[in-house]
Design a protein that fits this description.
The protein is of the alpha/beta class and 395 residues long. It has 3 domains: 145 residues, NAD(P)-binding Rossmann-like Domain (Rossmann fold, 3-Layer(aba) Sandwich); 141 residues, no CATH class; 69 residues, Orthogonal Bundle (Rna Polymerase Sigma Factor, Chain: A). The chain is 46% helix and 15% strand. The strands form 2 sheets. Strands 4-3-2-1-5-6-7 form a 7-stranded parallel β-sheet, sandwiched between helices. Strands 9-8-10-11 form a 4-stranded mixed β-sheet, covered by helices on one side. Helix 5 runs parallel beside helix 6 and helix 6 runs antiparallel to helix 15. It is globular, with a radius of gyration of 20 Å. It binds nicotinamide-adenine-dinucleotide and magnesium ion. The site of nicotinamide-adenine-dinucleotide has 27 residues, from helix 1, helix 6 and helix 10.
């Protein structure tokens, strides 16, 4: 029996994870559910999954949850530092890291430092902490498994020895020439460029193939998501920028590919449903059912590919350049983007302002070297202050 903690239980990945656990209740148990403020959804999840602990980071939300599930035998806890203790408890075998944004970094790192099996969905944590994260995985003997569908696909296409050296592998020595990171291009792949300044949050979060939380959906529309994934791939697979290529594949059937020096290309395919990579990470190296429909090639019909257009997707270009520049730049970009997306979702700035704010912060923030988590959080904070200043330029 694997005891799991679900960080971000009330979100999209949390929901998919709980669905895979329910399909495999003989082998997996929910030890703890973690969320921020959504009491109603958390109470429903507690009734359904009967965790040992339910943790609301927000103290008021935790109080409300206590009242809402008073009849259940569930320990309700709250707080940021208490969350770090929770993921480190000895009963915990694996942790699904699916809190959105920078808020997920500290608890994900705590799980790594406790040597847990860490299923990583929270790409922002890795974009920010990069080298420190990868070093901590090795130092504390944690097992890292990539949930993000592209990285999970790449992982599945790697030789077993390379899989076991995540973050420290040598692609070249494994005969790999390139990682081909696929992306759908989102809802605006073929929209008239002139219409982009006036697209609404509702249009931006309507992804053609995937159903996801609001922040990552906006990131998919700007292709910042692919940019963050480019950085994520850089760290997970110890890849140089010359070994990474973004390929637009609108059908989202191929989830990414690995090109070998002999001309072979390995790809992982499936319906666009996160339960597949989640189930893969939960059971690795075994396989379990996920509840996802088998892929029907006759329904798919066609697979197509094209190159990304940076005039349509400036955020992708910013992220690729930041990746080349280093971890300081990607940390600034990640923080700026989080602020910009939040303001776009509130209807306060235009869709095209997101890239402007990101670029402004990359130019303005002094990028001091990152030697500790404290350094990372300080730089993240400065970038957020700068991004809020940048908002003023958008009116
Ligand atoms: P979501 O918005 O649906 O859910 C976010 C979850 O994080 C919620 O449970 C919320 O309570 C929790 N949360 C937010 N702020 C928090 C805080 N300060 N402290 C504690 N918990 C907090 O997001 P999602 O789509 O499930 O994405 C989660 C993560 O997984 C993101 O990093 C995203 O990039 C990544 N991811 C998502 C998908 C997908 O298909 N949804 C695919 C790949 C990667
Ligand atoms: Mg992805």
């Amino acid at each position: 029996m694997q005891n799991m903690v679900i960080l971000g239980a009330t979100g999209s990945i949390g929901t998919s994870t709980l669905s895979v656990i329910s399909e495999n209740s003989d082998a997996f148990r929910v030890f703890a559910l973690v969320a921020n403020t959504n009491v109603k959804r958390m109470a429903e999840l507690c009734r359904l999954h009967r965790p040992t602990v339910a943790h609301m980071v927000d103290a008021t939300a935790a109080q409300q949850l206590k009242v809402a599930i008073a009849e259940l035998d569930v320990e309700v806890t709250s707080g940021e530092s208490e969350l770090l203790d929770l993921v480190s408890r000895p009963e915990v075998d694996s942790v699904m890291a699916a809190i959105v944004g920078a808020a997920g970094m500290a608890p994900t790192l705590a799980a790594v430092k406790a040597g847990k099996r860490v299923l990583l969905a929270n790409k922002e944590a890795l974009v920010m902490s990069g080298r420190l994260f990868i070093e901590a995985v090795a130092e504390y003997g944690a097992t890292l498994l990539p949930v993000d569908s592209e990285h999970n696909a790449i992982f599945q296409c790697l030789p077993r020895e390379t899989q076991q050296q995540l973050g420290r592998c040598d692609l070249k020595a494994a005969g790999i020439s390139k990682i081909l990171l696929t992306g759908s291009g989102g809802p605006f792949l073929r929209a008239e460029l002139a219409t982009l300044p006036t697209v609404t949050p509702a249009q931006a979060i309507k992804h053609p193939n995937w159903s996801m939380g609001p922040k990552i959906s906006v990131d998919s529309a700007t292709m910042m998501n692919k940019g963050l994934e480019y950085v994520e791939a850089r760290w997970l697979f110890n890849a140089g920028v010359e070994q990474l290529q973004v390929v637009i594949h609108p059908q989202s059937v191929i989830h990414s590919m690995v090109q070998y020096q002999d001309g072979s290309v390995m790809a992982q395919l499936g319906n666009p449903d996160m339960r597949t990579p989640i189930a893969h990470c939960m059971a690795y190296p075994a396989r379990i059912v996920s509840g996802v429909e088998p892929l029907d090639f006759f329904k798919v019909g066609q697979l197509s590919f094209c190159e990304p257009d940076f005039s349509r997707f400036p955020c992708l270009k910013l992220a690729m350049d930041a990746c080349r520049a280093g971890q300081e730049a990607t940390t600034v970009l990640n923080a700026a983007n989080e602020v910009a997306v939040a303001h776009f979702l509130k209807g306060e700035i235009r869709f095209t302002d997101i890239a402007k704010i990101n670029e402004f912060c990359l130019e303005q923030v002094v990028q001091s070297p990152l030697d500790s988590i404290a350094d990372i959080l300080a730089l993240d904070g400065e970038a957020r202050v700068c991004a809020r200043k940048g908002l003023a330029l958008c009116h």
